[in-house]
């Protein structure tokens, strides 16, 4: 058998290492930039989601949200776009940034709008 491990009486269990193959590979990379408005106490973000397999990107524009709200929006957008995934297939990267950088990170063109809810949209970049 391929997965058998043979241990003799001289082997130490401390030195025994078993490597399992990585079950999930990264299919989506979500880069989020966040800005904290200290004056009003609000947090804003914008996210770029790269679909690794298809060399496509979705951009969630500048909006209010704190904590893991950006991760929730990424998962919601991917589901509405028709992707099936496990949470381990999404790599989330977050940066703190200036307001102007967060706004620029969330820009797209009007002809690439993708509505994934009645009033919620992202940009689809090919």
Describe, in plain words, how this protein is organized in 3D:
This protein has a six-stranded mixed beta sheet with strand order 4-1-2-3-6-5, sandwiched between helices. A hairpin with a 5-residue loop joins strand 5 (113-115) and strand 6. The protein has 126 residues and is α+β, with helices and mostly antiparallel strands. It has helices at 69-80, 99-105; strands spanning 28-37, 42-51, 56-64, 90-96, 113-115, 121-125. The longest helix has 12 residues, at 69-80. The protein has one domain. The model has no long low-confidence stretch (mean pLDDT 87).
Brief overview:
By secondary structure, the protein is an alpha+beta fold. Helix content is 15%, strand content 35%. It has one domain (28-125).
